[in-house]
TrEMBL record:
Protein's name in the database: Transcriptional regulator
Organism: Ciceribacter ferrooxidans
Domain HTH arsR-type: 1-95
Ranges that cross the membrane: none
GO molecular function: DNA binding; DNA-binding transcription factor activity
Keyword Transcription regulation: yes
Keyword Transcription regulation attached: yes
Domain of life of the organism encoding this protein: Bacteria
Keyword terms, alphabetized: DNA-binding, Transcription, Transcription regulation
Length: 106
Protein backbone atom coordinates (compact mmCIF):
# COMPACT_ATOMS: atom_id res chain seq x y z
CA UNK A 1 0.00 0.00 0.00
CA UNK A 2 1.27 3.48 -0.82
CA UNK A 3 2.22 5.35 2.35
CA UNK A 4 0.79 8.65 1.07
CA UNK A 5 -2.60 7.02 0.52
CA UNK A 6 -2.55 5.51 4.01
CA UNK A 7 -1.62 8.88 5.47
CA UNK A 8 -4.51 10.53 3.62
CA UNK A 9 -6.96 7.92 4.90
CA UNK A 10 -5.74 8.22 8.46
CA UNK A 11 -5.92 12.00 8.20
CA UNK A 12 -9.53 11.74 7.03
CA UNK A 13 -10.35 9.55 10.01
CA UNK A 14 -8.44 11.86 12.35
CA UNK A 15 -11.37 14.25 12.58
CA UNK A 16 -13.82 13.23 15.37
CA UNK A 17 -16.90 14.02 13.27
CA UNK A 18 -15.63 12.07 10.27
CA UNK A 19 -14.63 9.15 12.47
CA UNK A 20 -18.15 9.10 13.93
CA UNK A 21 -19.67 9.25 10.44
CA UNK A 22 -17.38 6.48 9.21
CA UNK A 23 -18.17 4.22 12.15
CA UNK A 24 -21.86 4.76 11.45
CA UNK A 25 -21.32 3.80 7.81
CA UNK A 26 -19.40 0.69 8.85
CA UNK A 27 -22.24 -0.30 11.19
CA UNK A 28 -24.79 0.18 8.40
CA UNK A 29 -23.35 -2.75 6.48
CA UNK A 30 -23.12 -3.33 2.75
CA UNK A 31 -26.58 -1.91 2.05
CA UNK A 32 -25.40 1.47 3.31
CA UNK A 33 -27.53 4.19 4.78
CA UNK A 34 -29.52 7.03 3.28
CA UNK A 35 -27.85 10.37 3.85
CA UNK A 36 -30.94 11.66 5.69
CA UNK A 37 -30.83 8.78 8.16
CA UNK A 38 -27.09 9.22 8.53
CA UNK A 39 -27.63 12.87 9.39
CA UNK A 40 -30.18 11.90 12.04
CA UNK A 41 -27.79 9.38 13.59
CA UNK A 42 -24.76 11.63 13.76
CA UNK A 43 -26.69 14.79 14.57
CA UNK A 44 -24.86 17.34 12.44
CA UNK A 45 -26.16 19.86 9.87
CA UNK A 46 -26.57 18.65 6.28
CA UNK A 47 -23.91 20.98 4.89
CA UNK A 48 -21.38 19.82 7.49
CA UNK A 49 -22.23 16.18 6.81
CA UNK A 50 -21.81 16.75 3.09
CA UNK A 51 -18.36 18.26 3.68
CA UNK A 52 -17.23 15.32 5.81
CA UNK A 53 -18.68 12.71 3.44
CA UNK A 54 -16.83 14.33 0.55
CA UNK A 55 -13.55 13.96 2.43
CA UNK A 56 -14.25 10.27 3.20
CA UNK A 57 -15.13 9.61 -0.45
CA UNK A 58 -11.97 11.40 -1.65
CA UNK A 59 -9.89 9.23 0.68
CA UNK A 60 -11.53 6.11 -0.77
CA UNK A 61 -13.06 5.13 2.55
CA UNK A 62 -16.68 5.60 1.50
CA UNK A 63 -18.87 5.77 -1.58
CA UNK A 64 -22.16 7.36 -2.50
CA UNK A 65 -24.81 6.10 -4.89
CA UNK A 66 -27.97 7.83 -5.98
CA UNK A 67 -31.06 5.61 -5.96
CA UNK A 68 -33.91 7.68 -7.42
CA UNK A 69 -34.10 10.67 -5.06
CA UNK A 70 -32.14 9.05 -2.22
CA UNK A 71 -28.38 9.29 -1.77
CA UNK A 72 -27.01 6.08 -0.24
CA UNK A 73 -23.68 6.18 1.58
CA UNK A 74 -21.51 3.12 2.17
CA UNK A 75 -18.22 2.32 3.81
CA UNK A 76 -15.71 0.80 1.40
CA UNK A 77 -14.91 -2.43 3.22
CA UNK A 78 -11.98 -3.58 1.03
CA UNK A 79 -10.29 -0.22 1.62
CA UNK A 80 -11.00 -0.46 5.34
CA UNK A 81 -9.49 -3.96 5.49
CA UNK A 82 -6.48 -2.82 3.50
CA UNK A 83 -5.88 0.10 5.87
CA UNK A 84 -6.22 -2.09 8.94
CA UNK A 85 -3.97 -4.70 7.35
CA UNK A 86 -1.34 -2.08 6.61
CA UNK A 87 -1.35 -1.07 10.27
CA UNK A 88 -0.98 -4.59 11.64
CA UNK A 89 0.88 -6.52 8.92
CA UNK A 90 4.28 -5.91 10.42
CA UNK A 91 3.23 -5.99 14.04
CA UNK A 92 6.27 -6.80 16.13
CA UNK A 93 8.27 -7.79 13.03
CA UNK A 94 11.50 -6.79 14.74
CA UNK A 95 10.80 -8.49 18.07
CA UNK A 96 8.42 -10.81 19.83
CA UNK A 97 4.85 -9.60 19.54
CA UNK A 98 3.41 -7.81 22.54
CA UNK A 99 0.62 -10.40 22.64
CA UNK A 100 3.19 -13.17 23.10
CA UNK A 101 4.84 -11.61 26.14
CA UNK A 102 4.03 -13.17 29.48
CA UNK A 103 2.25 -10.86 31.84
CA UNK A 104 4.08 -10.20 35.06
CA UNK A 105 2.12 -10.67 38.26
CA UNK A 106 2.59 -7.80 40.67
Amino acid sequence: MIIEKVASQLEALGNPSRLNIYRTLVRAGRDGIAVGHLQERVGIPASTLSHHLKRLVEAGLASQERQATTLICRADYPTMRSLIGFLVDECCADQKCCGEQKEEVA
